Amino acid sequence: MDLEDRYIKFLFNGEIVQHTIKVIGNPPLKVRGGGLLVLGQDQDSYGGGYINIQSLCATLADFRIYDYVMKDEELLAFSDCTLEMAVVSSPIVSFSSVEQDFEAMNVDFGQMKNFEYCNAQRNDILIFPELRTFKTTKNLCHVSGGELMVPKSEEETWALFSKTVSYINFCNSGSMTSFWIGVKGNVTTQSWEHYDTGSELNFTNFVQQKVPVEEPHICVGFAGNNNTNANQHGGWYPVSCKLRRCPICLLNEVVLLKARGLCKDSLFDRQYFLTKDRGLVSFTGVYYSMMTRHFPSNATDDLDYGYWLLQRLDKPSVRATLSMDSPTHYPLGRHLWNVENDVCGNSTMSIILTACKEQQFSCSDGSCVELKQRCDMELDCPDDSDEMGCEFLTLAPSYNSDNPPPRLDITQPVRVEIHVDIYAIRKIDVANFQFTCEIEVTMEWFDSRLKFRHLNNASELNSLTGLEQQPWRPKLEFLGDRNTASDIQERRTTLSVRRYTPPLEDNDEEEYENYRVMVNVLGETRSGRSSDLCFCWDWKSAVKSAACLSYTSCSYYLFEW
Domain 124-251 carries which CATH code? Predict the structure, then answer.
């Protein structure tokens, strides 16, 4: 912050952003003593006016104040861990003396040195405390936004072992291996490979020196129990993939799970972190909501597995519950929640909790496929949900298919482009001034009253022909010389939508991600981006005409209504 030149710079995610400091009256800016420095809260008054939902929810790795304006390259170097600022100069306020200079309240305190931050691995190990087969374990890790853990060294193996020993009460499989790691055996090549990429491993930690790959023992269990012999700690063992072990998932980056399907003004958070609490996995909202697991109250009821509770921390009466259908049931994917006291006004709400990224579609089971695979007439989701609800067009109740679209120029007719292809002339009758030909007519136009979803790049997949209520179409007549009539035998008529531009921004009020396109009279989307969207109507017919069909006469009579 430069008080003389009146600007403040931020370095965020590797980018520097500068803002001007504007003060009414342009007085001199200075920092005077006697103030109160508060981190992680907003002071609405001196030392007070705190609001719980304005609290910092993060890990604060370091904090320093220097008495000079840093250069951009210094900021970037410090952020990239290529420059240790303490070597350049000493800060006037630093976390190095946090125990003497700061008073910590309502925080988990653990000092992180700068070198620890710079050398820290950007990943997190998440252990789910329920026994599962290898197949369901793999799916759970993926829908959580991660992958199965594969230790790559002895250091990683022992670090993993130190984490698993506290889970033995949850993950007691009755054998020395109680956890899955992401390794599978290849019987053909007699090698052990990464379960997802298929690449052969450079590091293994099998207790036996030479381990043959034999069916059905092609999956690998991890010995995370410290009650076994010391030489077995952290060891790998080939086991059957159908056995049940606890998943060890690796999150290589911070995963933000999105809650889709909430109404615009819902009081619940729309993004959640996966968090661990006393061995159990919870979902913590970025602001003030939390999803926690509650075990059944009646241990004698075999069909009661407990429930998940979604609750506002500052407003406990705003809540939603999801009954568990098994002991391993997590609220990932699409589920129907029972809601109380939310502003959406619904007693039930269908919510999809997904880790899918932009340009991905969230299947109902929580897995992800490419958004372009949505409604492409191919089954890509494991539950086939990418081909459900593929209606391209929903007409508004006020839409009248007898009225043409709005015109840009009130003095001009609606623009309709016509393309005529003559495939064959079947017969010429000179005596009666008639001929028979086979033609295909394609008409294209814009209708700004319509909004479409999940349009495919291939127009033939965007067919509207089978809809019960059809949008407006131009009325086409084939007239001969002096407006004489023609006999028409129609063979095929199709109505489809052609997509020219990217879709509108995603709307998380809808459960499923869609390609959403809307056009107005100017041919632009309502979000301000250009959109050339038109209908394509191919009319293939055999026409018996009293005179040659000309583009001029056809267009002229087409536009006169």
Answer: 3.10.100.10
